[in-house]
Amino acid sequence: MGTFVISKRFNGDYKFIFASRKGKTIFTSIGCKNKSDCELMIDGIRNHIDMFTFTKVRNAGGKYFFRLSKGGLVLANSRKYTTELLLKKGIDEILKYSSVGEVLDFSDAEAIFPEEEEIEIESL
After folding, report:
1. How many Cβ atoms are within 10 Å of 77's Cβ, its own excluded?
2. InterPro entries of this UniProt entry (predicted)?
3. If you write DSSP's letter for every residue of 30-71 in order, what string do you get?
4. What's the average model confidence in pLDDT over 6-14?
5. Which pLDDT value is given to residue 95?
6. Per-residue b/e over 82-111, b at no fewer than 16 CB within 10 Å?
7. At residue 124, does pLDDT exceed 90?
8. What DSSP state is assigned to residue 31?
9. Domain extents for the chain?
10. CB 19, CB 3: distance < 8 Å
């Protein structure tokens, strides 16, 4: 099953990724000023994927990727793929698992890992 992960960029904008069953990022969303915008896009993808368009692109270096859009507005860009078959597999994973994908929100986490001073080490 795939997973949507919401996080915050260094500039304060919110974004989300869709990760495959194996944990590899398939696409990354555009930046959003509000977390609620990310949540609305995720809900749209989960419940109405048929309303979105996948535009396949090949860059100058020969790599393949796709843009996920709705109504002409690009909402996400995929990772780069070496072959068109791998690109198709990435899209197929979204079509198959996005409706049941879990949503994880790491946008409010100040520090996922505590600073070194905060860790108490018990003596043996």
Report:
1. 17
2. YegP-like_sf (IPR036913)
3. PPBSSHHHHHHHHHHHHHHGGGSEEEEEE-TTS-EEEEEEET
4. 92
5. 94
6. eeeeebeebbebbeebbeebeeebeeeeee
7. no
8. P
9. 3-107
10. yes
The two three-digit tokens of residue 63, written as one number: 């790599």
Question: What residue type is 95 in one-letter code?
Answer: L
The dihedrals phi and psi of 11, each to the nearest 5 degrees, come to -85, 0
Question: In CATH, which of 2.40.10.10, 2.40.70.10, 3.40.190.10, 2.30.29.80 is domain 3-107?
Answer: 2.30.29.80
Write down the pTM of the prediction: 0.82
Give pLDDT tens digits for 57-93.
999 999 999 999 999 999 999 999 999 999 999 999 9
Kind and range of the H or E element at 95? helix 84-97
Provide the residue type at 70 as one letter. K
Show the tokens assigned to 79.
């990772």
